[in-house]
Design a protein that fits this description.
Elements lengths: L7 H10 L11 E6 L16 E11 L2 E8 L8 E5 L5 E5 L4 E4 L3 E7 L2 H15 L1
Antiparallel strand pairs: 1-2, 1-7, 2-3, 3-5, 3-6, 4-5
């Protein structure tokens, strides 16, 4: 699939040059994140801001965290974890797409994942990564 990165570049530049960023984020929080237009099978953001919901797995400091993108597309298998989201829709954690990001990509907090689901996601990630 061909992609046009010229649309994403100004958004990416603005995010990089902003002084505004969250004061921090915490594990279990769900944020809207400027994921961007990515390469190949890497998960892309949607809309003019290239955003998608993400789950914060680990916060290293106020500038850097580790996330897993979320989707509502029904995907099954060991690289995915389905759970009931805040809106009543089923959310899918895209475990194989987890990655570190700069917190400047986080635009707004929209909720959190309950402790039990978060623990399951952590265990599944350990299984597939190690």
């Amino acid at each position: 699939m061909k992609k046009d990165y010229q649309i994403w570049m100004p958004v990416k530049t603005e995010i990089n040059n902003t002084d505004l960023r969250p004061k921090g984020c915490k594990p279990r929080e769900v944020w809207i994140c400027n994921v961007g237009e990515n390469i190949g099978f890497e998960e892309d953001g949607k809309g003019k801001e290239f955003t998608r919901p993400v789950l914060v797995l680990k916060s290293f400091n106020k500038y850097f965290c580790y996330i897993v993108p979320l989707s509502t597309t029904n995907k099954r298998g060991k690289y995915y974890h389905a759970f009931d989201g805040k809106t009543g829709k089923t959310s899918i954690a895209l475990l194989s797409q987890s990655k570190p990001i700069d917190t400047a990509r986080l635009s707004r907090k929209v909720g959190f994942v309950n402790k039990n689901e978060f623990k399951i996601i952590q265990e599944k990630l350990k299984e597939i990564l190690f």
